[in-house]
Amino acid sequence: MTLAPEIVSLTGTHCRRVEVVVEVVVVPSKNDGSELAGGAIADLLNRKPTAVLGLATGSTPLGVYDDLVRRYEAGEVSFAQAKGFALDEYVGLPPNHPESYRAVIKREIAERVDFAPDSVHGPDGWASDIPAACAAYEEAIVAAGGIDLQILGVGTDGHIGFNEPISSLASLTRIKTLTEQTREDNARFFDDDLAQVPTHVLTQGVGTILRAGHLVLLAWGENKAEAVRDTVEGPITSMIPSTALQLHPHATVVVDEAAASALANRDHYKWTYANKPAWQGI
Ligand code: GLP
């Protein structure tokens, strides 16, 4: 887990962070992890009110959004000058479809806090010109100054965003075909009816994700344990896109005990985090 010398010299993070590449934080519960991630986002917004947030869907980040709403309502944080970019979107769902990711992001976070109108964006899976929509999305992220903090969940097959296995680790926003596994996993959002789950999606690429300043991947429960182990301890491979986190100089993986259960070095991660200088945050 020693930070490779070339990464140290390229990023200059050696003075700021302890010696891990992917930092693993094992928390007692999903609530603790959601609070930790929510706290990191609130700290970022208080340091940089114009911060650009990368917003994920799926069930995993919902507790983080609840935590942020609580902090917003308590007057601890404001999103008024911030921007948000969704990770991904289904192709072919009208934007007002309740399971379009645009609608989910709006419902779960954007309209519950004080984001300014039109400050939260998503790839346009309803566009007639899909390649142009993907290019426009990349440009919009760059024009906003890049994503400061990207929240990530992880699929059971190690997908991040909708970058399924065999996604180029340099990929940018583009159209992808979902695996049968992911469609089955996501059928729960479509009345458990596989036929309703779109087959295609737009997603920020792995390369897009790697451009964000800080990656915070969250995982809860035993069914994510293998994906978490592969992400942190496995070899980097496009077969498991989440392993690309190992290429990032500031990636944090926040997991509950069940999701951490397959990690060979779990005790070391706990010890490292317990002894981390408090001023570093995550
Ligand atoms: C979807 C999303 C991913 C998410 C994954 C895991 O496929 N595109 O961004 O990480 O689901 O979902 P969940 O958090 O519900 O387990």
Defining key terms:
282 residues; Rossmann fold; seven-stranded parallel sheet; 9 helices; 10 strands; disordered N terminus; binds 2-amino-2-deoxy-6-O-phosphono-alpha-D-glucopyranose
Give the spatial strand order of the biggest sheet: 1-10-9-6-2-3-5
**Unreliable stretches, pLDDT < 50, 5 or more residues?**
1-15
Structural class: alpha/beta
Q: Write down the overall geometry.
A: globular
Show the helix and strand layout:
Elements lengths: L4 H7 L10 E6 L2 H18 L4 E4 L6 H12 L9 E4 L1 E3 L10 H8 L11 E2 L8 H14 L5 E4 L21 E4 L2 H7 L13 E4 L2 H5 L3 E6 L5 H9 L17 E6 L9 H9 L8
Parallel strand pairs: 1-10, 2-3, 2-6, 3-5, 6-9, 9-10
Antiparallel strand pairs: 4-8, 7-8
This protein binds 2-amino-2-deoxy-6-O-phosphono-alpha-D-glucopyranose.
The site of 2-amino-2-deoxy-6-O-phosphono-alpha-D-glucopyranose has 14 residues, from helix 6.
